[in-house]
Design goal:
The chain is an all-beta fold. It contains no helices and 11 strands. The strands form 2 sheets. Strands 2, 4, 5, 6, 9, 10 and 11 form a 7-stranded mixed sheet that branches. Strands 1-3-8-7 form a 4-stranded antiparallel sheet, with no helix packed on it. The termini are far apart.
Length: about 120
């Protein structure tokens, strides 16, 4: 099994920044990519950023391009999401995920088998 634990969420004013972390433990195989997803109340879970392990390509959803940055520290087995210029519409529960991309794409929940429990991000105006 692979365990994922997110941290770093919180409350921030619009324009502020947060850095989410996702600590990975367990198996070191069975996945080739990580993703960050978010889900606001009443909305579907959406993929916002992701990347292939070992410094592969990274991808971003349009609403976060230019503001969020995905990164990975292999030595620490930690995945990060730096979030800058936050907006109230970024308010959501944020999840880290690990999986193998068989063609659904790195922003699709269908790619990911392992999920963390989430960390809440609240942005006030």
């Amino acid at each position: 099994q692979v365990q994922l634990v997110e941290s770093g969420g919180g409350s921030v004013q619009a324009g502020g920044s947060l850095r989410l972390s996702c600590d990975v433990s367990g198996y070191t195989y069975g996945y080739n990519c990580f993703g960050w997803f978010r889900q606001a109340p009443g909305k579907e879970r959406e993929g916002i950023a992701g990347g292939y392990i070992n410094g592969g390509s990274t991808y971003y959803a349009d609403p976060v391009k230019g503001r969020f940055t995905f990164s990975e520290d292999n030595a620490k087995r930690t995945v990060y999401l730096q979030m800058d210029a936050l907006k109230p519409e970024d308010t959501a529960m944020y999840y880290c995920a690990a999986g193998e991309d068989y063609g659904f794409g790195i922003l699709s929940p269908r790619t990911f088998k392992y999920w963390g429990q989430g960390t809440q991000v609240t942005v006030s105006s």
